[in-house]
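User: Hand in any protein.

Assistant:
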Amino acid sequence: MTSSRPPTLGQLRASPWGKPPLLGRSVREEIRINLLRALAAGGDLFPGIHGYKETIIPELVHALLARQHFILLGLRGQAKSRILRGLVRFLDEWMPIVAGSEVNDNPFAPISKYARERLAAEADETPIAWVGREARYVEKLATPDVTIADLIGDLDPIRAARGGHVLSDELTMHFGLLPRANRGIFALNELPDLAGKIQVGLFNIMQEGDVQLKGYPVRLPLDVLLCFTANPEDYTARGKIITPLKDRIGAEISTHYPQEVELGMAITEQEAWTARNGLGGIAPPVRIPRVVREVVERVAFEAREDKRVDRRSGVSQRLPISTLENVVSSAERRAIAHRERETVPRISDVYAALPAITGKLELEYEGELQGARVIAKELIRRAALRALLDRLLHEDDERLDRIVAWFDQGSALKVAGDERAAAAVKAFAVVPGLLELVHELELAVPDDPPGQVAGCELVLEALAAQKRITRSEERGWGAAHSKPGRPRGA
């Protein structure tokens, strides 16, 4: 409301903004106070961030309470940028500035010549503008071609000519991103990619508050919280953080991938586009069995442990997110073709989502020899095995032996990935004990054919991962130690 946001300097001076504790408070002190209030109120400090409650969040809170600049170190897809953007909630809802200021000048402590001259000329009648918290966050991706002009600013000859100023006049300066983030948060992603000479200018303005533009010294005592991100491997792969800058960063916080499958599933469920509304009712509603979500997530966990996958590059959380979206798309296409009432993915849909997996795997030399698709298929089978073993009392379950025995007799089973759920269940029912095991392990209920298909495929994929049976795209599932017989099934 206008009454709560004074429009002139005189009214601002008479308001709480013109008196302690708001008067003279820095942005880092502002964040500290609002963070303390959030801690006292309880609740989630960073909504939408999973898996960091006991690790990263406490370290970040400590740095903010200490009013320190900080850097987040971590591999790709570890929510570094999202964490930085979440800092906005610890800023005040509104902030007063001198109207027309490009650098968010504090009416009581201006840093630009424009603001100083306007305050001197108009005194208490100086107009006040109000900036929302979202506009106080500035983010930049560091690249080798970033210049001092991009970050700090440059002299503008056109502005000098139009205003009749000499180039050494501060009024000819075109401010860069960092001054425009004054009294706010400035986030710089992939810091090691920034050229060393630009990093020098960055730490100089952090510490001393001055910089030279085209040989003219300009004093800019900025009030800003500086946040950085970097990939640990970038220190040697593409560049490094120069020692003086690193020394001025208060806290170095290392992020990580989800340490538990449940946390990974929560992140993927939050980020993946799976709640789809069919155009004109053409596409049926989506229901994803838990076992399918789990297998998709475990593919990423298995990849992070596989020696053929480059661990220095990491396996981003975007892998299970993109994979699950493709899995739903495969099931959606099948549901529309068969006019089914629900879109229910199954394990075979994970194979249909191979492009979402292979494109996110950086392979070592051995992996390159085998090929991304071969490795991705193996990861899917291993993920299915892990999901099944978590539900069994022991690996050598007698119920599995009964299923394997049927295949060892020379039987084979082939069920097309695009087959109707009811027809696929009839095919799986041929295998003794398979459906019963699915029900006993609570992978699906008897009156849920789509869920039963997903459960049956999980069991057979797990047995294929153990090499107790074989799996072939042409012949389906068969015996492990003998030539499979004629495939049965849909």
